[in-house]
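Forum > Structural Biology > Help requests

Title: Can anyone predict the 3D structure of Single-stranded-DNA-specific exonuclease RecJ?

Hi all, first post here. I have the sequence for Single-stranded-DNA-specific exonuclease RecJ but no way to get a structure on my laptop. I'd be grateful if someone could post the C-alpha cells.
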Amino acid sequence: MSKQWEQIYRPNYISGYNPFIIKNMNKAIEKLVDAINSRKKIVVYGRCDVDGICALSSLILILRYLNGDVEYCIEEASNSEHIIKEEDIKNRIHFLGADLLITVGCTFKSTKELELCESLNIETIVLENIKPKKVYNTIYINPNQIGCSYRYKNLSTSALTFKLMQAIAIYYNMKSINRYLDLIFLGSVYNASEETGENKVFLKEGLTYLKQTDNYGLSSILEYLNIETIEKHNIDSILELLKPKSSSVSKMDTAKIVVELLTTSDKDRAEQIVKYLNFEKKKLSTIN
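Reply #1:
Sure, ran it for you. C-alpha cells for Single-stranded-DNA-specific exonuclease RecJ below:
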C-alpha cells in the first residue's frame, strides 16, 4: 500500500514532505475517504486555543469542499490535558451522530473511551504531536510515535493537520490545498513553532498566503484592523482577536464563534463576527 501512495505523491505538487511517510497516514486516508464518499457523519474534535481552532477550521473547510458531512466539537477551556472523556463522547460527539471522529490536538483519557466509541459504532482517527504516553487501538497520527520515520517531529497542531489535508489533496487530486496555509501559519505562530525544517516552509509560505488571503474571516479581520502591510505587531493583533476569551459567553462558545468566522462563506456574516469579537475584547479590557 505504501508504494501505491508514494507513486501518487508528487513533491512539487504542494509544499512540504510526503505526508504518507507519517505512520498510519494511509490508514487514515482510507477511513476518511470512505466516510466522505459514503456521506458518513464526520465529527472533528479540537482544542480551545488558536492553534487548535486554526487546525479544526482548515480541516472543516477542506471536508466541506469535498462535500463531506462534517460537524465539530471544541473541548472545554478548562481541559488543560486535552483529553476526551466519556461524557464528551456521549453528550456531544454521539449526539451529533458521529460515524467517524477525528481529534486534532486531543486524545482519549483511557482505553475505556475508545471502547465506548466502538460500542457506539464511532470509528476514530487521532492526531496529536506530543510524546505519546499510551498506545491506543486506533488510527494514530503522531510523528513522535514509535516506528514513525517522519523527519519533522515538532509540528504544531495546525501543521500536523495540514499533513492530513495534504494526503487528502493527493488522493482527490486537489490543486488548491495551499490556500489554507494562511490558517496554518497563524496556528503555528501562536504555537511558537521553531522556524526550522518544515515549520520554516509553513511559516514562509503561510505568510505569503495570509497577505493574499481569500478567507472571508481573515479578510474581514485585516480590513477591520486596517492592516495593509502584515508585520509582527499586526500578526499579534490578529491572534489576539482569534484567541478565545471569557466575556459574555464562555471561552468554548467564543471559540465556536471564531470557527464560524474562519469557515463562513458569507462575507457579511464574517464582518459581523469580527465586530462582535472586537466589542467583546474591548469590554473585557475595561473589566480588567
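The first helix runs from residue 2 to 8. Confidence is low (pLDDT under 50) at residues 1-16.
Shout if anything looks off.
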